[in-house]
Amino acid sequence: MAQTLVRINIIFTVLLATFSQAAESLLPQQRPLVIAHRGASGYLPEHTLEAKALAYAMRPDYIEQDLVLSKDNHLMVMHDIYLDDTTDVAETYPDRAREDGRYYAIDFTLAELKRLHVSEAFVRSGDSVTAKYPNRFPLGKSSFQLSTFEEELELIQGLNHTLGYDVGIYPEIKQPWFHYREGRDIAATTLSVLKQYGYHSRKQKIYLQCFDAEELQRIKSKLMPQLHMDLPLIQLIAETEWGEKMVEVDGQLQNYDYDWMQTPTGLKKIATYADGVGPAATMLAGFKDGKLAITSFVRQAHANHLAVHPYTFRADPQQIPPAVGSFENLLRLFIGKIGVDGVFTDHPDKVRAFIDNRSLPSRQVVADANNEHS
Ligand code: G3P
Ligand code: CA
């Protein structure tokens, strides 16, 4: 009798484990999106066509493009309005810095920008230059170029054609407030190029993102209706002190206040014009005194039917919070426990492998991580 009970117990345990595993497996429609942040930027200099081609081969759902305008109104795929942190502009055009010492893409024509060499992001200190992220593609070891939005769209659409996949695009309109001060309308230019390349409705695989709430509302209520377009919009959320958006008050530029976006009423407001939000990962969870603290952000965003695509998931050992321990644990936490709908990542291959090859993680792993560091 005792033996029978033990056997039943074992069978029950095995069945329970199997059921749990099956219940936690990710169905394709539930799989969080892999968004290649600036391409495969963990392996090749960000936003180069080489980084985008490598990202494509890693089978992300979307590839990201940050967009700024050149002097002759070309949309350039680059993260900053400045050129100094990823190119040799200071050596090639030493006399073209503005009074603040910085070199602005909008002061250069496309032909001039194409003469620049792009490298991994670096930090300059006097005469010495160090890579922003150690152990990534070596500085100055190869020659990469800036590219236009059109060049990148043709690369992705061409690969979709030859390989038969449907990798989407995830463009970000950078700093509309800055472009306005330069007399430009970067949102209108972006929508025009998107329409020209066939991205005009929710049938195409695209999200359009911006840190500027007022500009997204203008896109939603004015620009897209004028152009007969209807694209899903993502409200990016910054910390106020980052200065992502500046506003003029009494003739002085000051940081736009982002705090409202992380409140329940703020998320409700965002849901009136956007389909999702892109918060910093730190807005969703953090460790305090070694204990995991998860905010109510995702729950509140989901209550307003907003998708949540946090940034940025990097596998470089220096980028992993010590309390988490590994990139896989980080993904287990955000995908398995917090339940985000997609992640921006510099390492799309690793996130793809995690999502495709693993079932949803056991909550125990996170509990273990907590215990190890408490
Ligand atoms: O757009 C999502 C994420 O890329 C936001 O951060 O500064 O890398 O553009 P950033
Ligand atoms: Ca971005």
CATH-derived architecture? Alpha-Beta Barrel
Average pLDDT value? Answer: 90
Heteromolecules bound: SN-glycerol-3-phosphate, calcium ion
CATH class designation: Alpha Beta
Could you give the order of the helices and strands?
HEHEEHHEEHEHHEHEEEHEEEHEHEHH
Task: Calculate Rg over CA atoms.
Answer: 23 Å
Write down the overall geometry. Answer: globular
Question: What does this 3D model show about the protein?
Answer:
The protein has 374 residues and is an alpha/beta fold. The chain has one domain (2-12, 31-82, 140-373): TIM Barrel (Alpha-Beta Barrel), CATH 3.20.20. Helix content is 36%, strand content 16%. The chain has helices spanning 2-24, 49-57, 89-92, 110-113, 149-163, 176-181, 186-196, 213-227, 264-270, 297-303, 327-338, 348-357, 363-373; strands spanning 33-36, 62-69, 75-77, 122-125, 128-131, 168-173, 208-210, 233-236, 246-249, 252-255, 276-278, 285-288, 291-294, 307-308, 342-345. Strands 1, 2, 3, 6, 7, 8, 11, 14 and 15 form a nine-stranded mixed β-sheet that branches. A hairpin with a 5-residue loop joins strand 2 and strand 3. The longest helix is centred in the first third of the chain and has 23 residues, at 2-24. The protein is globular and about 50 Å long. SN-glycerol-3-phosphate is lined by residues 37, 66, 79, 172, 209, 236, 278, 311-312, 344. Residues 37, 66, 79, 172, 209, 236, 278, 311-312, 344 line the site of SN-glycerol-3-phosphate.
Summarize, please.
The chain is of the alpha/beta class and 374 residues long.
